[in-house]
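Hello forum,

I keep getting stuck at the same step: I have a sequence, I want structure tokens, and every attempt I make locally crashes halfway through. Rather than fight my setup again tonight, could one of you with a working pipeline run this one for me? It's a single chain of 102 residues.
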Amino acid sequence: MSNGRADPDRELRLLSELCRSLARLGLGVQIRDARPGLTVTRSRDAAEGSTAYVTLSPSGTRFVWRRVDDNHPASDIEGAAQRIAVFVGEQAPGAGVQGAGS
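Reply #2:
Ran it on my machine without issues. Output:
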């Protein structure tokens, strides 16, 4: 780490792994590179539903979305994907997320 920020290569690797896990759950996901992060939507049709922007914490140990208390350890990719899927699903009234209930 330098400047208190996560290693950029590790950050992109973790975000890529999370991106694949979210896509397997049927969510729409785009990687952003200006400030590394993921834009996650309830469906692959980005115009539909709500959005979460997911980044890696400055320490590189947690995925963070919406507010500080919406976070999950970066060491648990699948668990983070499940929590983000639930969060995005809850943002749209009456919306459910495929595969997120386990």
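The chain is about 30% helix and 25% strand. If your local run keeps crashing, start a new thread with the error log.
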